[in-house]
């Protein structure tokens, strides 16, 4: 189909605008990468925008040699894996149960869940609740409070209601129980939805710094994002100079070439890259996952 002149102009404008939008997103990432790979004192002079002018890996050696960061990485990886699995399982089971229209008190339960999504008790009551339950300053404070998501539950519920009831009825006639139906029929048919929501849940756990900053005081339990938040508020390099490995890295480099800004950029890159590598593997599920409920089959 031949496009008119106005349509060609419109497409050109759209391409240009989208290109500028992509550039505005990619450039800060490239800038931080260049600073993290550049000598700190040299980068402080300015002029480093897209690639390092004085290439060095000393910033990453110092960051990866920090014992607190290594511990924070393990905490972040553990909470992301465990939190995603527990959160998706609990939310899926709740959505699966509420998908049965004959469930007693189904509408009041849905209304109650909706209220919890719209209104919050506040930070102080929530902290008191965590304290009384013995969750503060423990690893479980990252897992249990986030085990159920009202938003994800409603998305799952909408998706499950679109599955033909004939499949479930035929399985029940063959003697399948609710658990078998869930894991042998519902879960295989829900892979796009589970992949999309699972990724969003994992990203939420990976990027969360709030829980570690307010509910945990033990430095060995803080996630990497909380450490990054503490580092961004630091005024000197004392936060990353504690371990012997760091001292060895400093001995191999030149201390005057290391600045707090270059270390911050290295920490940002180290904390951001792992979760970015997950996206390409789940990209095929995005279109199906994010359009859940938008079209009724």
UniProtKB/TrEMBL annotation:
Family recorded in the similarity comment: Belongs to the binding-protein-dependent transport system permease family.
Main location: membrane
Compartments where located: Cell membrane
Protein source organism: Paenibacillus soyae
Topology term for the membrane: Multi-pass membrane protein
Any one cellular-component term (Gene Ontology): plasma membrane
Upper lineage: Bacteria, Bacillati, Bacillota, Bacilli, Bacillales
Record field: transmembrane: 12-34, 72-97, 109-128, 140-160, 181-203, 258-282
The organism's place on the tree of life at top rank: Bacteria
Pfam families found in the cross-reference section: BPD_transp_1
Domain ABC transmembrane type-1 as annotated: residue spans: 73-279
Record keywords, A-Z: Cell membrane, Membrane, Transmembrane, Transmembrane helix, Transport
One biological process term in Gene Ontology: transmembrane transport
Name the UniProt record assigns to this protein: Carbohydrate ABC transporter permease
